TrEMBL record:
This is ARMD3 protein. GO terms for cellular component: cytosol; membrane. The gene is Armh3. It comes from the Eukaryota. InterPro entries: ARM-type_fold, ARMD3-like, ARMH3_C. Keywords: Membrane, Transmembrane, Transmembrane helix. Residues 435-671 form the Armadillo-like helical domain. It is found in: Membrane. It holds the Pfam family ARMH3_C. The keyword Nucleus does not apply.
Length: 689
């Protein structure tokens, strides 16, 4: 017997003598694509259509193949199909509902392909007709809201979310998607919150719900009042906020796990053996191969939650077991798609803190720790555009956290100590850190470690000036809190001071190249003022008097760098060039650092001469410093503990517009509506009559 094959809506026998046979659903689609009413000859046409398995590929292809004029000719039938789909969403038979949802997805995507300015018709008019648009879209949104909130099929809820994601992302720029006006008027915000607050729904649909919410919040956010922004900013339900935090934590945790797996696989491979044999000359190249696609969609959701909702700050510190250690799924777990910004949840077993008991032997984690680990990975390589965007967004999120009073309270809390294993970039001049014996410290130490790591590892020709500025601002904001609240943090401040001095050295060494692209004096001034902050207020927040002495020791030991900086800015500030004003600001900011160097250096030389010592030890220099504080005169500098607060609309609007466009394109690319096979659906809906 000849085998039957199926392709593109055609059924054909392998025998060449027979003409290809079309599926019944394809024949029915063809009837819709005529100017006649398909129900004239068959009154049961629409009832039968929604019992047929949808052929997404054929329906979308058919719509895309028509030009604007041809599409306008069958507008009445398209409107009718759209309205019939909405009616079918209220049916009792789940198969009809599933087929209606999938048909709506195909219709929206197919018609939107023709929505070019040249075709001269409006997308809303083409889908529903202007006269019925308001009522139809209201009915559609109410039906989707009911399906999402009902205790029914999880498959239906999944398709509802995918339809909504389809609706939101059909245009690259979501703010130009006029259909979303109806999603604003007929809000599904509460339905999204319900999914996030329920452990079962969250496990199945949390990822799609969070991505959907992040996108809806960005619809015309600067031009009009967006109800999703208003509602997200006032959510105070603990279960909902924790649910959202857990979904984000799981997605970031899955990324961290995949990166770690690839890293371990890479280290045990042949290339690693070769690297060990030849030395570390290939280490940078080797690391470049360790690549896991970033997830800006989930990062955007975290940003919106942190930026808009003060109550979400508490979720950052909500303790839960380390996710990578606690999940032991019995069935295969789906992994993040290889394309970036996928909408498929990275793992189906999102953990609820209420569902898993804390074990004394298991490392406790929280969303902030998971986020810091994620940041330490994506910020390693900023050459790739997605990672650069991710790195920038990570620093913007940390900026919002560093400005928040409550966040600072738990960051600096001595009773909340954690081991945070940040990823460090392999570098030729340093060994890979042993992370086994990491100390338990307040979380702010991990934030500072991340900033120091970034400063040290990104001094390169393609200098990421914007990221450096953000990095120094975060450190400054944390110091302002410590000064204000007199928090004496036990941190290895020397590592920060050393990193900052090396950054100044790099700026001077590459003055010509960098000045062609950047105003390096803005960054230099920020770095110098961090030192001024330590000099002026260090006695109020450095942990011990000896820490303050060590600050002076580092300035004196590295005085040549400050002398060179002063020479450079003095040269440029006395010329009439474009850098005169910014360079002169740095000149004035160096006054106290130069006073320290000029005061102590002669004293140290004198001490060496009197004691006949050619090279003083650190302890001897510190002794000279301690005994000569009294005669040191410093100028009081104003505004060192003041900073401009973060403002998205005025400074970051262009970045977020481009970021959301990138996310929209990738979410659309990764949407899969036919993941549910007809067999599975029939099995789930076996009660259908």
């Amino acid at each position: 017997m000849a085998q039957t094959e199926k392709k593109g809506g055609l059924l054909r026998k392998s025998s060449a003598s027979k003409k290809p046979l079309k599926e019944k659903v394809v024949l029915m689609y063809d009837e819709i694509f005529t100017t006649e009413d398909p129900s004239k000859c068959n009154p049961r046409f629409w009832e039968e259509l929604f019992l047929m398995k949808v052929n997404l590929e054929y329906l979308e292809g058919k719509l895309e193949a028509l030009d604007g004029e041809e599409l306008m000719k069958i507008k009445d039938n398209i409107n009718c199909l759209f309205q019939r789909c909405i009616q079918a969403l209220g049916e009792e038979h789940p198969i009809r509902v599933v087929n209606a949802l999938q048909t709506l997805c195909a219709l929206i995507r197919g018609v939107h392909q023709k929505n070019k300015s040249t075709s001269g018709f409006d997308i809303i008019n083409m889908l529903v007709g202007f006269d019925k648009a308001e009522l139809c879209m209201k009915n559609l949104m109410e039906s989707l809201d009911s399906l999402l909130c009902a205790e029914g099929s999880e498959s239906l809820k999944s398709l509802c979310l995918k339809l909504l994601l389809c609706l939101v992302t059909v245009t690259d720029n979501i703010s130009q998607n006029t259909i979303l006006e109806y999603v604003m008027i007929n809000s599904i915000f509460e339905a999204i919150l319900q999914i996030l607050s329920s452990p079962l729904s969250r496990r199945e649909h949390g990822y799609d719900a969070v991505v959907l919410l992040a996108l809806l919040v960005n619809y015309r956010k600067y031009e009009s009042v967006n109800p999703y922004i208003v509602k997200l900013s006032i959510v105070d339900d603990e279960a909902t906020l924790n649910g959202m935090g857990l979904v984000i934590a799981q997605a970031l945790s899955e990324y961290n796990r995949q990166y770690k797996d690839k890293e371990e696989e890479h280290q045990t491979g042949f290339f690693s053996a070769l690297t060990n044999m030849v030395g570390s000359m290939f280490i940078a190249d080797a690391d470049e191969k360790i690549s896991v696609q970033t997830n800006e969609a989930i990062l955007l959701a975290l940003y919106e939650a942190v930026h808009l909702n003060r109550n979400f700050i508490t979720v950052l510190a909500q303790s839960h077991p380390e996710m990578g250690l606690m999940t032991t799924p019995t069935s295969p777990v789906p992994t993040t798609p290889v394309t970036p910004l996928g909408t498929t949840p990275p793992s189906s077993d999102v953990i609820s803190s209420a569902e898993l008991p804390l074990d004394a032997d298991v490392q406790t984690s929280n969303l902030l720790i998971t986020f810091l680990k994620y940041s330490s990975i994506v910020m390693q390589d900023t050459k790739d555009e997605h990672r650069l965007h991710s790195g920038k967004l990570c620093l913007i999120i940390l900026t919002c956290i560093a400005e928040d009073q409550y966040a600072n309270a738990f960051l600096h809390d001595d009773n909340m100590n954690f081991r945070v294993n940040l990823h460090r970039m392999p570098m030729r001049h340093r060994k890979k850190a042993a992370d086994k014996n990491l100390p338990c410290r307040p979380l702010v130490c991990a934030v500072l470690d991340l900033m120091v790591e970034f400063i040290v590892t990104h001094m390169m020709k393609e200098f990421p000036m914007d990221l450096y500025v953000r990095c120094i601002q975060i450190v400054h904001k944390l110091l302002c809190y410590q000064k204000k609240c007199r928090v004496r943090l036990h941190y290895t401040w020397r590592e920060l001071w050393s990193a900052l001095i090396n950054l100044l050295k790099f700026l001077m060494s590459n003055e010509t190249v960098l000045l062609a692209k950047h105003n390096i004096f803005t960054l230099a001034l920020m770095v110098v003022n961090l030192f001024n902050m330590f000099i002026t207020y260090g006695d109020t927040f450095l942990p011990t008097p000896s820490s303050y002495d060590e600050l002076y020791y580092e300035i004196i030991r590295m005085h040549q760098n400050f002398d060179n900086l002063y020479s450079m800015v003095l040269r440029l500030s006395t010329n009439a060039g474009q850098w005169k004003e910014p360079a002169s600001k740095v000149t004035h900011a160096l006054v106290n650092i130069r006073a320290i160097i000029n005061h102590f250096n002669p004293k140290i030389e004198s001490y060496a001469a009197v004691n006949h010592i050619s090279q003083l030890s650190e302890d001897q220099v510190l002794e000279v410093v301690r005994s000569n504080y009294d005669t040191l005169t410093l100028k009081l500098q104003d505004g060192l503990d003041q900073y401009e607060r973060y403002s998205e609309q005025h400074k970051e609007a262009a970045f977020f517009k481009e970021l959301v466009r990138s996310i929209s394109i990738n979410v659309r690319k990764n949407l899969a509506f036919n993941t549910l096979s007809q067999e599975l659906l029939l099995k789930e809906f076996s009660t259908i009559s």
